Amino acid sequence: MYVPSSVRARLINWMHTTKFSAHPRTSRTIALISRRFWWPSLHKDVKEFVLACPVCARNKSSHLPLSGLLQPLPIPKRPWSHIAIDFVTGLPVSNGMTTIFTVVDRFSKACHLIPLRKLPTSFQTAQLLVKHIFKLHGIPQEILSDRGPQFTAHVWKHFCAPLEAKVCLSSGYHPQSNEQTEHMNQELESTLRCLTSTNPTDWSQFLHWVEYAHNSHVSSATGLSSFEVSLGYQPPLFPADEKEITVTSVQHHIRRCCSIWRNTVTALNRSSEQNRRFADRRRRPAPDYTPGQLVWLSTRNIPLKSMTIKVISLFHWPLQDRVYHQSYCCPVTSAFFPPNPPHVPRLADQACPDQLAVASVRAPAAPPQEIDGHPAFTVRRIVDSR
């Protein structure tokens, strides 16, 4: 049966949204309609309708590759000019210590592991860096961290500003931004499990040896140990193995260190490019969203009132601005936690206004939102004050 243009949208809407069809994908919707109806642009119209259907976009998971190609961090030019910091928590009490402060040099891959009694404040974190890092390696140009409360507080920013140390925060719920520290934490935890399998509460006694072992091992990225890259030599495993070496001039040692650093930069660039190519095989270029555009934002890391996570949907919010490369600022972020721009894989395209008109379906309202178990409300306007 031929369908005139005046009723095509209504027919597609009914065949796609009715309970006996239950929002099927494009091919199945076409198959349902084709059993009784036909018109020249059937396939095109159905495809546009399904793409614009807000119910499908909101509730169905995407099988497309992650959007956003890998954006490697710039390679430093010398040791300890760019550091990454993080905390390892949830450890058993060992001599009063429950937390480890990890500091990683992004150039040499060297690390310092500092045991702590509890998570420090922003001020205490700054004191730890001065006491354990700055006195040994100088003030870094850049400090990379996640978006923990220690690093988003004004105290932390005021501490770094006079030192001219750039504060870099990873994207919201995107630990790949601080991948070196995350990898270091995984290696640290697995090593401690090996050394303390019989008595896990002794981990603090082995922490210094774990740090020495890590800095002695050869890095797969540079082909050198952290000691060689940062100090210019490899400490002997046993003093008896050290051969007597004639003292060279200071200039010769400097030239040797500079040569090691140049080779390290080349190796890091090569390793970064290999990692980028490997990661991009399972990714696609990020869409170029514009401020005010409607997008779907994943609710995976947003507290919502729901019976179970299995039925939580995606909902759309207008974008406000681009923060950095593939991170965007959405109004929903400020309602739940400090500014935490979502990374582009957590966003999905919303249909354009023309497609929404074709779909003839209004987007459902956002689900109830909660903060610490209490309902969260958005203030539209202030009607009065006193």
From TrEMBL:
Residue ranges of domain Integrase catalytic in the record? 75-243
Write down the Pfam families for this protein, in alphabetical order. Integrase_H2C2 (PF17921), rve (PF00665)
What stretches pass through the bilayer? none
Q: Which InterPro entries does the UniProt record give?
A: Integrase_cat-core, Integrase_H2C2, Retrovirus_Pol_polyprotein, RNaseH-like_sf, RNaseH_sf
Can you cite a GO biological process for this protein? DNA integration
Entry's Gene3D superfamilies? 1.10.340.70, Ribonuclease H-like superfamily/Ribonuclease H
Output the Gene Ontology terms for molecular function.
nucleic acid binding
This one is known as Gypsy retrotransposon integrase-like protein 1
Q: Which organism is it from?
A: Poecilia reticulata (Guppy)
